C-alpha cells in the first residue's frame, strides 16, 4: 500500500493461501492498523530509542501490527503478539530490527500491565488516526461534535449488508432463515445486515441471489427514481452493484468503465447477479454513445471516498488536497462528457460517496453555470454516516430542459 495500491487489492493477493480464520485475522489486523495508525504511533514513539522518523518503514509497520494486537485484540495474548512479530522482523529487518521490535513491544506490554499509557496526542486527528488537514476541514464544516462522531464511525468495523438481486427480499430472508444465518433489516430500509463474514458461503451467492452493498448506495439508487422502461447508461459502473439494482425495471442498462481491471470486476458482478445489462469499455469524458440517445445517465463519480472510510480504511491515508483537486477536475470533465448523450427531457443523476462540498453540491452548481439546458429537479440527497449508521453519500437529479 505504500506503493499507492488499494487496500482491498493487496489484501486479496496476500491472503490467498490462508484458511478462512486466518484470512479474517489478517484482514482485521491490517484494517485495524490503518484505522488507528496515529493512535498506535502515539503509543509506540515514546518507547523507541532514537528518532522515530528515521525508523525504516517496514519496521514501523511491524511495530504497529504488534501494537495493534497487544492493544486491541484481547484474544491474542500479549506474549504471543510480541513473539510472532519478532519472528517476522527477523526475516524482514534482520537481528537488529528484531531486537528493536522485541524491546518496544515488551515495554508496551509491561506498561499496560502497570496501567500506564504513553499516548501524548489528545487532538481529534491523533486520537482517531485521521489526517489533520482532513479533520480541520470537517470541523470547519460540521463542528467539533459532529466531526468526532464521524471519526468514531470511521473507526468502527462496517457491517455486511446484502441487497436482493435475482431473488426478492422475501426469498432472500427465507434462504437465510433456512441456513440459520442471523440477519436483520439494514438502516435506511435498504437491504439485510447479516452476521456471517464469509460471503461466498451464504445461500444464493453463486446464483446471484444478492449483491453486497452498503445501504447508502442502495438508497442513492432509490433516490434516483428512474422511470420504468428507461434506457439507462451507468457511466462509471464498476464494481457493478448499482448496475444490478438499476436493471430492475429498466428497459435497458448500459454499464461502462474506462479501466480494464475495473471492467473485469463489473462483468463478474453483472454476470452473476443481473440480466439485460450491456457492458462497455468506455471513457465517460469522451463517450462513444450517440448524442441524444439516452433517457437516463447515472454518474457515480470517482471521488475522495470520504463517506466510506470505515469500509475502506486506506482511503484516509491515500487522500491529499492535491488528489482531491484532481478528482474535482475529473468529475467536471465526466459531467461535461455525458451531458450530450441525453435526449431532451432526459435525466442526469450525479452521485458520489464523498462528504466534500466541492465534489458534491458545488460541483453541480458549477455544471449548471456551464450548462443552461439543465435544471436541478427536487432537493439533493446527503447521507452523513453517523446520522444514518451507514456509509456517506450525495446525490442530485438534473433534468435536461432543451
Name the CATH homologous superfamily of the domain at 213-400: Vaccinia Virus protein VP39
> What does the average pLDDT come to?
90
Query: Which runs of at least 5 residues are low in confidence (pLDDT < 50)?
Result: 117-122
Specify the structural class.
alpha/beta
Order of helices and strands, N to C?
HHHHHHHEHEEEHEHEHEEHHEHEEHE
**Which CATH class of the domain at 213-400 is shown?**
Alpha Beta
Number-wise, the strands total 12
Principal-axes geometry comes out as: globular
Fold-level CATH name of the domain at 213-400: Rossmann fold
Query: How many H/I helical runs?
Result: 15
| Helical content band | 40-55%
Description:
It is a single chain. The protein is of the alpha/beta class. Among the domains are: 36-121, Orthogonal Bundle (N-utilizing Substance Protein B Homolog, Chain A), CATH 1.10.940; 213-400, Rossmann fold (3-Layer(aba) Sandwich). It is 47% helix and 15% strand. The chain is built from 15 helices and twelve strands. The protein has helices at 7-14, 20-35, 37-44, 57-72, 78-113, 124-128, 132-154, 169-178, 215-224, 241-246, 260-273, 315-318, 321-339, 361-370, 385-388, and strands spanning 160-164, 183-185, 192-194, 210-212, 231-234, 252-257, 277-281, 294-300, 342-352, 374-376, 381-383, 393-400. Strands 5, 6, 7, 8, 9, 10, 11 and 12 form an eight-stranded mixed sheet that branches. β5 (231-234), α10 (241-246) and β6 (252-257) form a beta-alpha-beta unit. α3 (37-44) packs across α4. The longest helix is centred in the N-terminal third of the chain and has 36 residues, at 78-113. Residues 117-122 have low confidence and may be disordered.
Amino acid at each position: 500500500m505504500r506503493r499507492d495500491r488499494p487496500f482491498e487489492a493487496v489484501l486479496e493477493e496476500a491472503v490467498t493461501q490462508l484458511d478462512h480464520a486466518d484470512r479474517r485475522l489478517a484482514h482485521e489486523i491490517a484494517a485495524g492498523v490503518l484505522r488507528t495508525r496515529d493512535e498506535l504511533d502515539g503509543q509506540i514513539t515514546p518507547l523507541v530509542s532514537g528518532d522515530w522518523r528515521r525508523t525504516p518503514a517496514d519496521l514501523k509497520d511491524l511495530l504497529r501490527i504488534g501494537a495493534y494486537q497487544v492493544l486491541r485484540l484481547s484474544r491474542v495474548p500479549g506474549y504471543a503478539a510480541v513473539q510472532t512479530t519478532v519472528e517476522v522482523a527477523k526475516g524482514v529487518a534482520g537481528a537488529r530490527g528484531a531486537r528493536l521490535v522485541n524491546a518496544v513491544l515488551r515495554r508496551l506490554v509491561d506498561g499496560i500491565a502497570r496501567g500506564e499509557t504513553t499516548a501524548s496526542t489528545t487532538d481529534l486527528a491523533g486520537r482517531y488516526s485521521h489526517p489533520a488537514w482532513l479533520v480541520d476541514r470537517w470541523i470547519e464544516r460540521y463542528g467539533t461534535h459532529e466531526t468526532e462522531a464521524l471519526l468514531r464511525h470511521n473507526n468502527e468495523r462496517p457491517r455486511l449488508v446484502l441487497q436482493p438481486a435475482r431473488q426478492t427480499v422475501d426469498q432472500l430472508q427465507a434462504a437465510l432463515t433456512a441456513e440459520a444465518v442471523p440477519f436483520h433489516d439494514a438502516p435506511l430500509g435498504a437491504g439485510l445486515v447479516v452476521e456471517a463474514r464469509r460471503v461466498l458461503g451464504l445461500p444464493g451467492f453463486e446464483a446471484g441471489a444478492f449483491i453486497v452493498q452498503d445501504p447508502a448506495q442502495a438508497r442513492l439508487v432509490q433516490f434516483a427514481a428512474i422511470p420504468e422502461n428507461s434506457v439507462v447508461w451507468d457511466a462509471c459502473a464498476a464494481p457493478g452493484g448499482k448496475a444490478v439494482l438499476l436493471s430492475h425495471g429498466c428497459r435497458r442498462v448500459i454499464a461502462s468503465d474506462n479501466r480494464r481491471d475495473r471492467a473485469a470486476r463489473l462483468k463478474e458482478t453483472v454476470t452473476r447477479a443481473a440480466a439485460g445489462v450491456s457492458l462497455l469499455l468506455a471513457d465517460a469524458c469522451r463517450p462513444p454513445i450517440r448524442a441524444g440517445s439516452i433517457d437516463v445517465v447515472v454518474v457515480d463519480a470517482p471521488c475522495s471516498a470520504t463517506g466510506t472510510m470505515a469500509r475502506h480504511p486506506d482511503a484516509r491515508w491515500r487522500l491529499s488536497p492535491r488528489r482531491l483537486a484532481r478528482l474535482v477536475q475529473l468529475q467536471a470533465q465526466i459531467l461535461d462528457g455525458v451531458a450530450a448523450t441525453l435526449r431532451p427531457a432526459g435525466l442526469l443523476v450525479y452521485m458520489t460517496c464523498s462528504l466534500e462540498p466541492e465534489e458534491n453540491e458545488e460541483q453541480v452548481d458549477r455544471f449548471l453555470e456551464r450548462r443552461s439546458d439543465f435544471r436541478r429537479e427536487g432537493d439533493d440527497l446527503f447521507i452523513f454516516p453517523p446520522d444514518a449508521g451507514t456509509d456517506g453519500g450525495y446525490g442530485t437529479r438534473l433534468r435536461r430542459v432543451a
